[in-house]
Amino acid sequence: ACATVLSSAGAVDNPLVAERLGHHLLAAGCPGDAVTPLLRGVEVRQITVGCGGALALLEVAEGALRDACAPATDERWGRIWVSAGELRGELSDYEAAVALIERAQQAADVYEWPNVGRRAALARARLHLVAGRFDLARETLTGLADGDRTHRSEVLRELGELDRRERHFPDAIVHLDAAISTLGDAVDWRGQLPRCFLSRGRCLEGIGDLDAARDDYLSALALFEARGLGLGVGSCYDRLGRLAAATGDIAAAAGHFGRALSQFEALANERRTTCRLRLALALARRDAQESLAEVERARPVLRELEAGASAVVAVAFRLVRHAASDDAVGWDQDFGHT
User: Fold this and answer.
1) How far apart are CA 6 and CA 19, in angstroms?
2) What is the widest separation between alpha-carbon atoms in the chain?
3) What string of DSSP letters covers 139-161?
4) pLDDT at residue 219 is higher than 60
5) Does residue 249 come out as left (phi exceeding 0), alpha (psi in the -120 to 50 range) or beta?
6) From CA 203, how far away is CA 209, in angstroms rounded?
7) Mapping DSSP to helix (H, G, I), strand (E, B) and coil, where does residue 14 land?
8) What Rg value do the Cα atoms of the chain yield, rounded?
9) Measured distance CA(234)–CA(175) in Å, rounded
10) Which helix (H) or strand (E) holds 121?
């Protein structure tokens, strides 16, 4: 009954209730009908809680599509592979990400899935960008002019990100302004507009216009909050904290990092650990005991970090602890490991 009511209300395309509809359809024994709203739910989780929650729901969606015995020609397979590739890329599992994106791209070419093909190409460009293959990223992005204005705006924003990473800040700002104007009044539940402001703030920070950068971060913060996108809210507070720390306003930096950490903790997002490190570093410049308290709060995850790809973060936490407690021997030992 719930599934019927939600379906009649257009919930399949409604980001606020799509996941709920998907679960009701699964419970009603309709796995094939559940897949599309579940995939919309994955997209929502990706921008609201981050990779962990999105991957968990993506597994449910994939299982539902398999239970529905969907044929290879079903475009939703491509959507699943692209989403998985995007998420694996965000988790720095680049080998798996590339394989998934290539699988989606090949299927899109064979079965003529234009939307999947565009999304896969954009995901591939982002992977090139993160890996520092800037020429390949630009080549991919410049071939993505087709699509609706939301897609075109995304491409322009990624070109801005590319320029920013290459430290071509004026060019980046031009691309980001174009992304904002291209988006116009299009529905923006994914938070494309505040992400443009966030990126532009980083460019302004790069050219030394710190007041303008702060204004853009605050604009992005207000837009993320209006859309209920907690991950974006945390990102804005994180940037505001870094800006305050760079200008020597330690009290403001600690406050911003603390608010960012609260967001990441509430979402169980993987960025909470590095955010806590920045908070500890800021506090170390004001009060050693406060800094040590933050390091101790991170202790449960340090062992896991030391065993994985984030070992450098664990070492950084130990260095903060050594500095705050005047442990020169421990500092020398851990600094040597870096």
Assistant:
1) 11
2) 67
3) HHHHT---S-HHHHHHHHHHHHH
4) yes
5) beta
6) 9
7) coil
8) 22
9) 24
10) helix 114-130
Taking each helix axis as running N to C, give the angle between helix 31-48 and helix 18-27, from 0 to 180 degrees, rounded to the nearest 10.
150
Asked if 34 and 64 count as a contact pair (C-beta separation under 8 A), the reply is: yes
CA–CA dist 77, 73 (Å, integer): 8
CA distance 28 to 278: 47
CB 156 within 8 A of CB 178: yes
Please identify which residue in the block is written with the tokens 């989780």. Answer: 45
CA gap 146, 13 in Å, rounded:
22
Q: What's the angle, vertex CA 90, arms to CA 85 and CA 96, rounded to 5?
A: 40
Assessment of whether the complete model's pTM goes beyond 0.85: no
What's the CA gap between 285 and 293, in Å, rounded?
Answer: 14
Tell me the backbone φ, ψ of residue 60, rounded to 5 degrees: -65, -45
Q: Round to whole Å and give the CA distance between 57 and 53.
A: 6
Contact 277, 320 (CB under 8 A): yes
As a dihedral over the C-alpha atoms of residue 59, residue 61, residue 62, residue 68, rounded to 10 degrees, the angle is 140
The number of CA neighbours under 13 Å toward the Cβ of 3 is 14
pLDDT higher than 60, residue 211: yes
From residue 260, give the alpha-carbon distance in Å to each of 198, 206, 221, 302: 14, 21, 11, 20
Phi-psi region of 133 (alpha: psi -120 to 50; beta: other; left: phi over 0): beta
Reported as a single tens digit per residue, the pLDDT across 248-305 is 898 999 999 999 999 999 988 878 888 888 887 777 766 655 656 656 665 555 555 4
Sign of the four-CA dihedral 124, 125, 127, 132: positive
Q: Is 177 exposed, middle or buried (0-12, 13-18, 19+ CB in 10 A)?
A: middle
Residue 22 CA to residue 303 CA, distance in Å, equals 37
Between CA 265 and CA 49 the distance in angstroms is 10
Taking 90 as the threshold, does the pLDDT of residue 147 lie above it?
no
Residue with the larger pLDDT of the pair 10 and 264? 264
